[in-house]
From TrEMBL:
GO terms for cellular component: membrane. Its EC number is 1.-.-.-. Belongs to the short-chain dehydrogenases/reductases (SDR) family. This is Putative oxidoreductase. InterPro entries: NAD(P)-bd_dom_sf, SDR_fam. It is an enzyme of class 1 (oxidoreductase). Gene3D superfamilies: NAD(P)-binding Rossmann-like Domain. CDD domains: SDR_c (cd05233). Keywords: Oxidoreductase.
Length: 250
């Protein structure tokens, strides 16, 4: 992981999510400055107070909406005003049920903006700042759903697939300037987003995902599947021939 001291700034996009809150607690306890970005200012302020109590050198709430690019630059300016290393963790995303999207195709636009195009545009705007500093980390949270289009959530999966491909290119570009980019592909995590899905295989917790992210940052990993079992599972799923895959219900 990057140096863990008060000279670290972490921009946390989607800071109200369950995993983001666990990640915030982790870096706050290491003394980092956290910029908590999201749509719910009351929740962000509460998280900022908690981060300060846990040891963050500073905690700043900021409005961010992946569908409103006008909210992006102010966050980048806040981070740029700090000395030291700038990092960014992206936990933004939305996952409407596929049958809801089938009934209302306008939901496609928001799903893709939340899970792909909004975060990608923000990171593209942040990239020159990271290149100038010549250090830092980007954590982009995708999903195993992006590894192959499945009948139950293919719009969400398409958005996460696009984001993963973007992160791969960003890793190639920023890696030449000393910036590490980690793509995280969780399976089902016990969060608000997954409530109502019923029992899911290999479900994990937000704290376990954060522990895995920290280890992957320390080792400068490119891609992280969490739980690890999803790597062989998804490798097999990607190898299933299309004629057979079309008949499956996964």
């Amino acid at each position: 992981m990057t140096d863990t001291n008060t000279n670290q700034t972490w921009i946390i996009l989607g800071a109200s999510s369950t995993i983001a809150k666990a990640f915030t607690r982790s870096v706050a306890e290491q003394g980092a400055h956290v910029i908590l970005a999201g749509r719910r200012m009351d929740d962000l302020k509460a998280s900022a107070d908690d981060a300060t109590a846990r040891g963050a050198s500073a905690a700043t709430p900021a409005i961010f909406d992946a569908r409103v690019p006008d909210t992006f630059q102010a966050i980048i300016d806040l981070a740029s005003a700090q000395s030291g290393t700038i990092n960014c963790a992206v936990f933004v995303g939305s996952m409407p049920a596929q049958d809801a999207i089938d009934a209302d195709p306008t939901l496609v636009d928001g799903t893709i903006a939340d899970s792909f195009t909004g975060p990608a545009r923000f990171l593209q705007m942040l990239a020159p700042v990271l290149i100038e500093r010549g250090t830092g980390s980007v954590v982009g949270v995708g999903s195993v759903a992006g590894d192959r289009g499945r009948v139950g959530n293919y719009v969400y999966g398409a958005a996460k697939a696009g984001f993963a491909t973007y992160l791969s290119g960003l890793r190639n570009a920023l890696g030449r300037h000393g910036v590490h980019v980690l793509t995280v592909k969780p399976g089902p995590v016990d969060t608000v987003m997954t409530q109502g899905l019923g029992k899911q295989p290999f479900m994990t917790t937000a704290d376990a995902v954060v522990q895995d992210i920290r280890k992957a940052l320390q080792k400068k990993r490119n891609t992280l599947y969490t739980k690890w079992i999803w790597w062989p599972v998804m490798t097999i799923i990607k190898l299933i021939p299309e004629p057979i895959f079309k008949k499956m219900s996964i």
